[in-house]
Design goal:
571 residues
Length: 571
C-alpha cells in the first residue's frame, strides 16, 4: 500500500497496558473507519514505528504519549515532528494530573520548546466527548495543513509565477481549503480537460468543486466564485461602513451589527488582514493552544455575518466625502455608498525591501508577509526571514517545520525590544538562527530566488547566501493614502484620533464644541481603529478591543446626528 492510499495513523504511546487499551478503544470507536490506530508501550518503539511509517505505511496525523522520553537527546514528540512536519502532538495525562508539579513543568517546557501542541486527558468514560473534542480539533488542524483529501478549489499554476502565489494566498487567508498543482502534473491536465480547457495557459487557472474553471480570475471574480458577496447596494444607506476586515474591522462589525446597526464591511483583499496570514497566534485570550490567523478571522467573519453584517468582498475603497446624510464612500472603480458614520480599519501593509533585483522575484521565492501557503514548498531549502516582530517569529517557527534551515535577519541589536519572550525561547529551541544587525541588500536567481546578499550593518561587510525562500516582515505603512486631506494624519500616514486631533491640528481642525472621541478622527463620525491609528498597540487583541469599543462612539454620533436633525426639522 502506498503512502498516498494508506490511511493516516494515530499513534498511542503509553506504558500502562490498561491505560493504553482504554485510549485505543475510545479512538477506534470514533475514528477507526478513517484512521489506523497504532499502539506501542514506550518511546523507543514509537520512534521505530514512526520511521516505518515514513517508508509508505501511511502519514502520521497524531501522536499521543504519556511521557516525552529521551531518544538520542530528543523527545518522542520532536522525533515525530522531524519525520512528519504537520503531525499534531498531545501529552497524555490522567484526570487531575495537571496538579502534579513534575507533569506540569514537563508540559510547559515542551510547549515552550515548540515540541508539543497541548495535553490530552485520558478518557475515563465512554463516550468521553471532552476527550474527543480535543482529538477532533487536532485532526482538523492536521487535515487543513496536510491537504491529504480532495479540496473544494484547485489552483493550477507555475510555482515561480507571482499570480499563482497571490491567488493561493488570497484563498488561504480567506479560509478556503485548496489544492495546488503544477501545470505539468497529470492531475492538472485531467482537471483542465474536464473543464473544457485543452491547452494549458501561461496564467493560473482556478478550478472549483463543481467543475467551473476560471482563467487568471480577478480577485473579485475569485471571491464570487466560491460564494462570497462582492456586490454593493448603492441605494441602501448604512448606519456605518467599516473599511477593512482585519481583527479591528471584524470586531467593529460584530458589535455594531449585534446592537442593531446596519453595517457594511468593505475589504480589498482577504478577511483577516495581516493577522489572517499568521500561522499561529499563541497569545490571544481564550485559545490555550493558539489559533491560526485565518481560523480566527473566519470565526469572526461568520459571527459578524450571523448578526446581519453585509460584506463587499474584494472591493477597494477609493475615496470619502461628506454629504447631507453623513458620508459617501467611493468604491473603485465607480460605485458609491452612503452612510451615517465610518470606521477606518484599513490596517497596514509590509514595507518593501527596496532591492530592485529582489522585487522582480516577488512570488517567485520572495514573499511579503508570513505566506504560510508557501511553507511546505520550502522543504529542503535554506530560508531567511527578515524582521524582528512577532509575525516574523511565528513565520520562522512555521517554516522551521519544513525548511533545511531558517535564519532570522534582524536590523537591530536584539529581539527583546520587538518580540514576545515565548517566541524568542521557541526560536532558540527549534534551532532557528538569529543574525542581528543584518540586512538584505541584494540577490537574484534565474526566474526564481536562488541567493541573497546580506550586509552586516556594524562592519559593512557583505556575504552571498544560498536562499530558497525570503520572507519579508519589516515594519509597516498604513493604508491611508486614499483619505481626503480633512482626515488628519501624521507624517507617516497614521490617522490622528481623539486629543491628538486638536493638539496637532489646532482648534480649527475640529468643527464641534465637544472634544473628539477617543477613536474619532478630525471628521466627526469618522473613526479609526487598529494599526492605521496613531498610537495603537500592534497586537491582535488590542485591535479587537478598539474595534469593539468604538461602537459606543458610533452610537453616540448617530444619536447626536438624529438630535441635530430633529432640531433642524422643528426650526
Amino acid at each position: 500500500m502506498s503512502a498516498a492510499t494508506a490511511p493516516p495513523v494515530i499513534l498511542v504511546v503509553a506504558r500502562d497496558a490498561d491505560a493504553r487499551s482504554a485510549v485505543v478503544a475510545e479512538l477506534a470507536r470514533r475514528y477507526g473507519a478513517d484512521y489506523r490506530i497504532d499502539e506501542v508501550a514506550d518511546e523507543h518503539e514509537a520512534a521505530r514505528r514512526i520511521e516505518r511509517l515514513v517508508d509508505g505505511a501511511g502519514p502520521l496525523a497524531l501522536i499521543l504519549a504519556d511521557r516525552a522520553g529521551d531518544i538520542g537527546g530528543r523527545s518522542v514528540f520532536a522525533v515525530a515532528r522531524s519525520w512528519f512536519p504537520d503531525v499534531r502532538r498531545g501529552r497524555l495525562i490522567e484526570w487531575g494530573q495537571w496538579g502534579d508539579a513534575g507533569v506540569r513543568e514537563e508540559i510547559l517546557a515542551l510547549m515552550a520548546a515548540g515540541e508539543l501542541e497541548y495535553y490530552v486527558i485520558r478518557p475515563w468514560h465512554t463516550p468521553d466527548e471532552y476527550f474527543h473534542r480535543t482529538i477532533t480539533e487536532f485532526l482538523l488542524e492536521w487535515e487543513r495543513s496536510i491537504g491529504l483529501r480532495p479540496r473544494e478549489v484547485t489552483v493550477i499554476g507555475r510555482a515561480g509565477l507571482a499570480r499563482t502565489h497571490e491567488l493561493r494566498s488570497l484563498l488561504a487567508r480567506g479560509g478556503v481549503p485548496h489544492d495546488w498543482l503544477e501545470p505539468a502534473d497529470v492531475r492538472a491536465r485531467e482537471r483542465l480537460e474536464r473543464a473544457g480547457i485543452d491547452e494549458v495557459p501561461d496564467v493560473p487557472v482556478v478550478v472549483m468543486l463543481d467543475g467551473r474553471a476560471f482563467v487568471d480570475p480577478g480577485n473579485a471574480e475569485l471571491a464570487a466564485a466560491y460564494g462570497l458577496d462582492t456586490s454593493v447596494d448603492v441605494d441602501r444607506v448604512a448606519d456605518v461602513v467599516v473599511v477593512g476586515a482585519g481583527p479591528a474591522g471584524l470586531a467593529a462589525a460584530v458589535y455594531a451589527a449585534s446592537e442593531g446597526l446596519d453595517v457594511l464591511v468593505v475589504e480589498r483583499e482577504s478577511i483577516g488582514g495581516q493577522a489572517g496570514s499568521s500561522s499561529l497566534i499563541r497569545n490571544y485570550l481564550g485559545f490555550s493552544r493558539g489559533i491560526s490567523g485565518s481560523e480566527l478571522a473566519q470565526r469572526a467573519y461568520q459571527q459578524a455575518w450571523v448578526f446581519g453584517t453585509r460584506f463587499a468582498h474584494a472591493r477597494e475603497v477609493a475615496g470619502l466625502e461628506r454629504d447631507a446624510e453623513g458620508y459617501v464612500v467611493r468604491i473603485a472603480p465607480d460605485l458609491a455608498v452612503r452612510c451615517r458614520s465610518v470606521v477606518l480599519a484599513t490596517g497596514v501593509s509590509y514595507r518593501r525591501l527596496g532591492v530592485p533585483e529582489l522585487e522582480r522575484l516577488e512570488g517567485a521565492g520572495v514573499f511579503y508577509g508570513a505566506s504560510a501557503v508557501e511553507a511546505q514548498g520550502m522543504a529542503g531549502r535554506p530560508v531567511f526571514v527578515v524582521g524582528g516582530g512577532n509575525s516574523a517569529g511565528q513565520a520562522a517557527l512555521h517554516l522551521a517545520r519544513y525548511a533545511a534551515s531558517v535564519t532570522l535577519l534582524v536590523r537591530g541589536e536584539s529581539l527583546a525590544d520587538s518580540m514576545s519572550q515565548y517566541l524568542i525561547d521557541q526560536l532558540a529551541a527549534q534551532g532557528v538562527a538569529v543574525r542581528t544587525r543584518a540586512e538584505v541588500v541584494g540577490g537574484g536567481g534565474d526566474g526564481v530566488l536562488e541567493r541573497i546578499v546580506v550586509r552586516d550593518r556594524e562592519t559593512g561587510t557583505t556575504s552571498e547566501e544560498p536562499c530558497g525562500g525570503l520572507f519579508v516582515l519589516i515594519g509597516a505603512a498604513p493604508r491611508t493614502g486614499w483619505l481626503p486631506p480633512e482626515v488628519l494624519r501624521d507624517r507617516w500616514g497614521y490617522v490622528l484620533t481623539g486629543p491628538d486631533v486638536v493638539a496637532e491640528g489646532g482648534r480649527r481642525a475640529w468643527p464641534l464644541d465637544r472634544e473628539p472621541g477617543a477613536h474619532e478622527t478630525s471628521l466627526p463620525g469618522v473613526f479609526a481603529v487598529g494599526d492605521a491609528r496613531r498610537g495603537s498597540v500592534k497586537r491582535v487583541a488590542s485591535a479587537v478591543g478598539e474595534g469593539s469599543v468604538v461602537v459606543s462612539a458610533v452610537h453616540a454620533h448617530l444619536a447626536e446626528a438624529r438630535a441635530q436633525g430633529e432640531q433642524s426639522g422643528a426650526a
